[in-house]
Amino acid sequence: MTAVVLVAMGVDADRHLAELTDLAEATGARLAHLQGRDPSLTAALDGLRDEGARDVTLVGTSLGQRAPARSWLRRVAADWVRRNPGVDVVVAGRDVTGREAPLTSPAWEDVPGHRRHVLVCRGPRCAAKGAGETAEALAESLKRHELGDDDVLVTQTGCLFPCNHAPVVVVHPEDTWYGPVGPADADEVVACHLADGAPVERLRRPRDGGRA
Fold first, then answer.
1. Which of 31, 68, 163, 207 has a Cα at 20 to 30 A from 8?
2. How confident is the model at residue 66 (pLDDT cuts 50, 70, 90)?
3. Cα–Cα distance between 180 and 126 in angstroms, integer?
């Protein structure tokens, strides 16, 4: 049995889920996600193995802009192949041998030395209200202000819960909750709060039981 898996690469795949689903159905492929959503690539490969597949072709697809390097698709596939030697996996026309780079590296041992940690909600409501565009705008503004991961570590998350204020953005360690934060607001959050340390009061939402 030969199978094809369409792998959504980006964390913003939720913005393109209908297109990806239609593409998978039209081509007879399974749909899996490298990050952010289920089924994960590993879960999809486990399912195909259990169904008797012995040849699997992975096709990485990036419809958005926030996707990792495609080498990560081969790296994750190789990690799976090392644990499942009876299944042949192909990425971009090349066999995955299991000898590719592992999922760990000395460069990824230490917690980043960031001063602030920014959480960008990518839950269903935030995604529907433009969290993807907000995340892109934040990334572009951080680059313009020359703030890297050692200054501000940005993490895109599942639902953070105050969905009526979507898209929601949280800044730690100040425990400052913002919403709604649209693309037009992102530069103000970066310039005022992340660069100069002054929260943007007009966007703030008090956390119940926490600091206002």
1. 163
2. low
3. 9
